[in-house]
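User: What would this chain look like folded?
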Amino acid sequence: MHMLFITATRLGDAVISTGILAELLRRHPGVRITIACGPVPAELFSHVPGLERILIMEKQPYDLHWLKLWKACVGQRWDITVDLRGSATTLLLRSGRRLIMRGGRRPGRRIEHLAALLGQTPPPLPTLWSSETERAQALALIPPTQQVIALGPTANWTGKIWPVERHIALWQAIRATYPQARPAIFYGPGTQEAGLARPLLDALPDALDMGGRFTLTQTAALLARCALYVGNDSGLMHMAAAAGTPTLGLFGPSRASEYAPAGPRAHWIAAPGPEGEAPIAGLSIETVTSAALALLKENAA
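Assistant: Here's the prediction, encoded as structure tokens.
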């Protein structure tokens, strides 16, 4: 069997889509899969079972990236095509079963909209795949004897970023209760992400620097070793939740009703005020600290 799976350009959306991808792999053991996605999340799928190839879609004028994708896929007879971008591409391919996600934004959790394509309730949780080597490397960096608390101070726009001084105050409160704990700062590649993380790295000189130099699958393995992740609404937040890490997502003007983290130990808190309009600065240090400490206690080994 051959399956084409067209998913997101953004990391967070791509992570959310891994739940139905894992469910399709479970339902169709041995299927050979081609994944089409944007360049940012592409390495997320590098260890998917049955992977044949990853087609990277870079936006082109006049939607020519869709024509390029069609040309790359038209020679194959597909047993299943899944299009989470709502395009007409799969309608123009030789395909057995087609699953097409209607385009546009709508109320409700994104993960549930995706699960509706499969008629699955409750929705399958996101899944991350990493290699045995990557898991061994993560174990070496974060051994079982070390309690590491992951902080995610970045996001794709400033309105979603909880002030860095509050991340610092949060860490001070965690260390007062868990003096042997060590912080780890997670952020994405590129100068913008590094710049957003730098003030927190400077303020916490003993922090593990977990940004920039790791692949997404290495990052997944590292997140799975952490005792807690606290961070802004971002792709890394979704990765932490999918990795099974106790996760506390921080929401301000973004909508938790649509993009709350999904995972076996995922939680979130939102700033007070109308959803989609509440400034994240309204989220107090005390509120976040209380929730973070409660998560640590709840998930203590």
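DSSP finds ten helices and eleven strands in the chain. If you want, I can go into more detail on any region.
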